[in-house]
Write a structure and sequence with these properties.
By secondary structure, the chain is an alpha/beta fold. It contains 14 helices and eight strands. The longest helix has 40 residues.
Length: 357
């Protein structure tokens, strides 16, 4: 083809892009926001839902590559608006795929599961790609009416798949294609390791959920011969001592709070559910703990009731998360067992200030 014709075609495609890309920018954003809200409402865990509209450079490159193989026009491009849903584990990928299929009109002929294309004997880039439009029902809504008939692509990946794609493909680090034999072997080994890690994280998550379910059943039967773990303690607290604890939000039950509570219990010498239940049952029956404790607050109050000197000398003093103030309401609760003078002596010894509210 004449070079002048090539330049003219490229200019025409560039004009098409300039005149048509704006709706796709809005489409990518509204689809991403809609998906995020739906994932949250369906309680499907995800890492992020990034989105983008195709850049002009990428658009022109794709047109050029496609025209080598066949006739191709800008109207044929289905990924001018792109959204990625990054999940934590493999089992959430299928949940997301089911959700996408219900929410939008999926173009099955253009959609692909990269894992299935790899087959059983190959490892590498894995992801599920959907080509969609908003569909008839959603297209009638005012916020979607401007995007009716426009296609967009949704990619669904786990966090590890996403990391691999960033290295192998999106960042252009030249890890794909033909490599020297010794590097190609390492490349394949790394691909397999990442895929194995993804599968193992998924299995581990399923087993933890099964363990929690089993533990819940055993706790209801008062069988508490289990080590003290995050899962076990949360189940026991919820089942038997939930009325003493107020969770401000879901995250209160996770990470920092429960880890800190477990650490202090172990330092105090309580390392199994049976012992924790015995101590907690004894002291909640004997004293009024109140009804607005945090998870860590309840555990600390319990340990102080058991032995306030031991708690401060062996647990508090050894902690790198030491708190330096205590509320007057907590002091009033502790006065059910200890005198104000005894409590204030301990607080002074550990440089803890009393605050009133």
């Amino acid at each position: 083809m004449d070079s002048k014709v090539d330049i003219k075609i490229k200019e025409d495609h560039g004009h098409w892009y300039d005149n048509n890309i704006d709706p796709y920018k809005g489409l990518a954003e509204i689809i991403a926001v809609t998906l995020k809200n739906s994932l949250i409402s369906q309680q499907i865990s995800f890492v992020d839902v990034p989105y983008r509209s195709k850049t002009k450079k990428s658009f022109l490159k794709k047109i050029e590559d496609k025209l080598i193989e066949k006739d191709y026009s800008p109207e044929s491009m289905t990924d001018l608006a792109g959204i990625r849903i990054i999940t934590l584990i493999e089992s959430d990928v299928q949940k997301v795929c089911d959700l996408v299929s219900k929410m939008f009109n999926v173009h099955q002929a253009d959609s692909v599961n990269k894992s299935e294309k790899l087959g059983e004997e190959k490892v590498g880039y894995r992801s599920v790609h959907f080509v969609c439009d908003v569909g008839e029902v959603r297209g009638k809504l005012p916020e979607f009416s401007a995007y009716k008939g426009l296609c967009f692509e949704i990619q669904v990946r786990t966090a590890l798949e996403h990391a691999w794609a960033e290295i192998e493909h999106d960042r252009g680090y030249k890890l794909g294609g033909k490599l020297p034999s010794h590097l190609n072997r390492r490349f394949k080994l790394l691909s397999g390791l990442l895929e194995s890690a993804d599968l193992e994280f998924n299995r581990l998550t399923v087993e933890i959920e099964e363990y929690a379910k089993k533990l819940n059943e055993q706790i209801k039967k008062n069988n508490l011969d289990y080590e003290l773990t995050n899962v076990g303690l949360l189940v026991l607290l919820s089942e038997k001592f939930g009325k003493y604890i107020v969770y401000k939000n879901k995250s209160d039950k996770n990470a920092y709070s429960i880890d800190l509570g477990i650490a202090e219990l172990y330092k105090f010498g309580i390392d199994n559910l049976k012992e924790f239940d015995r101590v907690a049952s004894t002291y909640t029956n004997q004293y009024d703990f109140g009804r607005d404790n945090s998870l860590v607050g309840f555990i600390r109050q319990l340990l102080m009731f058991v032995d306030i000197n031991k708690y401060f000398d062996e647990v508090y003093a050894a902690s790198d998360k030491a708190w330096t103030v205590i509320s007057s309401s907590t002091i009033e609760i502790l006065e059910q067992k200890y005198s104000r003078e005894e409590i204030e002596k301990i607080l002074t010894r550990h440089s803890i200030k009393l605050i009133h509210f």
